[in-house]
Each structure stands twice: as structure tokens, then as C-alpha cells.
Amino acid sequence: MNNFNTLALLLIFLPMVAIVANAAKSIAKQKSSPQQDPMLQAALTQAEAHATRLEERIDQLERILDEDIPGWRARNAR
Mean pLDDT, the chain, as a whole number? Predict the structure, then answer.
């Protein structure tokens, strides 16, 4: 049951990380524009930090799954 919960958490967080990472890429593109609203810049910086934290959490969950459920990547790649 614990393995199932860990896998469920991973499946929940992966799409969120992808969305936030995509937003972070957009932020990087927008940083190159000369004029930006300071509030927008602050929001973008916060979103980028959030994306980084989520990616770190996903990495940790994947390490846990690698230890608890060997071969989970192969089974879920189908």
C-alpha cells in the first residue's frame, strides 16, 4: 500500500512540475524584454522558485520509488 501511495504522489506531482517548469521557461524568455512590471517580475521569480522546489520533490520521490519499487519506471513507461 505504501508503494501505491508513493506512486500516486508521483503521478500527481509530475504534471504539476511540467506545468510549472513550462512557466519557468516562459519567465526566462520574458526576462530578456527591456520593460517589465515589477510586480510581474516578482510573481515570475516566485513561480520559478516554486518550480525548482517541485522538481526537487519529484527527484526525491523518484529516488524513493527506485528504492522501494525496483523497475517501476519500466512498468510505467508502457
Answer: 81
Query: What is the pTM assigned to this prediction?
Result: 0.51
The separation between the first and the last C-alpha atoms of the chain, rounded to the nearest angstrom, is 22
Cell readout for 52 is 525548482
In-domain check, residue 53: yes
Please state, in angstroms and rounded to a whole number, the distance separating the CA atoms of residues 64 and 70: 10
**Is the pLDDT higher at 77 or at 33?**
77
Contact by Cβ (8 Å): 65, 20: no
Look up the domain containing 55 and give its range: 2-27+37-76
